[in-house]
Design goal:
The protein is an alpha+beta fold. Helices cover about 25% and strands about 25% of the residues.
Length: about 220
C-alpha cells in the first residue's frame, strides 16, 4: 500500500490522523510520516485499514445508519511469520518471547474470546484451487484450544486447525478423524498430492482453531 492509498482509505473512513493512529496502536507522527510518503507503511497496517474499510462498506450496504468507530476495540495478536516459526516452536510457552513477536491488529469480536496467535501459511499442501484453500503467505488468525478439551472429540467438522507438532513443526491441516480413546487425530491436506497421516496428541504442543484468513488483494 502506498501513501496515497492509505490517505484515501483514512478519508473514506472519516477518521482523523489521530483517530486512525489510536486504532492501529501507533503515534500520530507515524501516520503523518506514512501520508507524506516518508516511511513505508507496514503490511500489517495495510491489512488492518483495508479490512476496516471493507467492514464499513458492508455495514453501509446493510443499513442507512452511519458507522461509528469511536467504540471500536482492537486486539493486537502475535504473529509467527515464516521467519519466526522455528523460534516459536522452541518458545511457545515463553511469554516474553511471544511478546517480542510482531503483532497484527484485529477488531475485538465479542464472540471470539481466548488466547490468539497468527501464523503465516507455508507451502501448498492446503491449496487445491478452491475457495477453501490456504495459500502460501496467507495470515491466519487462530484461537488456542486448551489441552483439557483435547480429551473430548474435537469439532473438526466446523474448523480447520493449526497443529504445533513437537517434531513436524507448525502444520496447517484439516482433521478428518479423532480417536478419543487412543488420542490419535488424522490430518488431511486439501492438495491431493499430500497423503493423510495420523499423529498422537501427546506429540502436540499446541492446537488452534483457524478463525479467519487475511489475503493480499492481488491474490485469489
Amino acid at each position: 500500500m502506498n501513501y496515497l492509498e492509505f490517505k484515501e482509505i483514512r478519508k473514506k473512513l472519516k477518521m482523523k490522523q489521530a483517530d486512525i493512529a489510536k486504532s492501529i496502536g501507533v503515534g500520530t507522527r507515524a501516520v503523518q510520516y506514512w501520508e507524506k510518503g516518508e516511511r513505508k507503511i507496514p503490511e500489517t497496517t495495510a491489512y488492518f485499514v483495508t479490512n476496516l474499510l471493507e467492514e464499513q462498506e458492508k455495514k453501509l450496504d446493510d443499513s442507512a445508519s452511519p458507522v461509528i468507530f469511536a467504540d471500536l476495540k482492537i486486539m493486537n495478536v502475535p504473529l509467527a511469520n515464516q521467519y519466526a516459526q522455528a523460534g516459536y516452536l522452541n518458545s511457545f510457552a515463553d511469554e516474553e518471547y511471544i511478546e517480542s513477536l510482531p503483532t497484527i491488529p484485529f477488531t475485538d469480536d465479542v464472540e471470539h474470546r481466548g488466547e490468539y496467535m497468527c501464523f503465516e501459511v507455508k507451502g501448498d499442501s492446503m491449496d487445491n484451487g478452491s475457495y477453501e484453500s490456504y495459500l502460501e503467505g496467507d495470515i491466519i488468525l487462530c484461537r488456542n484450544i486448551r489441552q483439557d478439551y483435547w480429551m473430548s472429540k474435537l469439532h473438526y467438522d466446523k474448523w480447520d486447525f493449526v497443529i504445533v507438532h513437537k517434531e513436524k513443526g507448525i502444520l496447517v491441516k484439516r482433521i478428518i478423524n479423532h480417536d478419543v480413546e487412543k488420542g490419535i487425530i488424522t490430518l488431511h491436506s486439501l492438495n491431493e498430492y499430500y497423503d493423510d497421516f495420523e499423529i498422537h496428541l501427546t506429540d502436540v504442543a499446541k492446537l488452534f482453531n483457524i478463525i479467519s484468513t487475511r489475503r493480499k488483494n492481488n491474490r485469489r
